[in-house]
């Protein structure tokens, strides 16, 4: 293998291994996702940060910084399952987590009994 080809392969490998923040302008982030909306956790009729009535089964999520309405592909790094959610709330409050999925969205990619899962986030539309 030529030195140039080896350098290119190494550079490509490193580029895919380094996660960058998922921002409205694109990029991928690897982080910990949680879920919210367990029965009894949120009062009926409660609203999300953008004013919508909370729906635990909606394909929606809370983000600390992505704009409301942003569509994000969330992929479980353990099993490859993914779901696309719309940001309509703020959170999570735990700084070790990057996104808080509704129960419905989380259940599409992981067992809700697990509570947390490692994911990649990719903005697909803002």
Automatic annotation (TrEMBL):
One of its GO terms (molecular function) is lytic endotransglycosylase activity. Residues 30-120 form the RlpA-like protein double-psi beta-barrel domain. It is an enzyme of class 4 (lyase). GO terms for biological process: cell wall organization; peptidoglycan metabolic process. Residues 1-24 form the signal peptide. It comes from the Bacteria. Keywords: Cell wall biogenesis/degradation, Lyase, Signal. Its EC number is 4.2.2.-. Belongs to the RlpA family. Lytic transglycosylase with a strong preference for naked glycan strands that lack stem peptides. PANTHER family: ENDOLYTIC PEPTIDOGLYCAN TRANSGLYCOSYLASE RLPA (PTHR34183), ENDOLYTIC PEPTIDOGLYCAN TRANSGLYCOSYLASE RLPA-RELATED (PTHR34183:SF8). This is Probable endolytic peptidoglycan transglycosylase RlpA.
């Amino acid at each position: 293998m030529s030195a140039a080809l080896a350098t290119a392969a190494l550079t490509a490998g490193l580029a895919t291994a380094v996660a960058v923040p998922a921002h409205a302008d694109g990029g991928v982030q690897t982080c910990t996702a949680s879920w919210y909306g367990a029965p009894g956790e949120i009062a009926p009729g409660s609203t999300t940060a953008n004013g919508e009535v909370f729906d635990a089964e909606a394909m929606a999520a809370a983000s600390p910084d992505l704009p409301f309405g942003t569509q994000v592909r969330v992929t479980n790094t353990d099993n490859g399952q993914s779901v696309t959610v719309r940001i309509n709330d703020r959170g999570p409050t735990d700084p070790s987590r990057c996104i808080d999925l509704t129960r419905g969205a989380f259940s599409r990619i992981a067992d809700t009994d697990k509570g947390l899962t490692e994911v990649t986030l990719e903005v697909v539309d803002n």
